[in-house]
Protein: Phage protein
Organism: Streptococcus mitis
Amino acid sequence: MTKIEIVMVLTTLMSITWAAIVTIHTMQAIKKHKAKVDYYQKPQVQCKIARHVLKNKWYSDGGEVFR
């Protein structure tokens, strides 16, 4: 193998490795985000947040609490 072929093979392997790392990281981030969304969609959690907002009167400054 010539030097150019070795460089091409190494570049290809680095690209494949980088793509795999990015894909795995993205899949983990999506999994964490879905878990957070599922948590905040529970009625008990929403009631707990609403009680906390009412207790601290966060609604009085005109801010948006729930989107």
The chain has two helices and no strands. The chain has a mean pLDDT of 89.
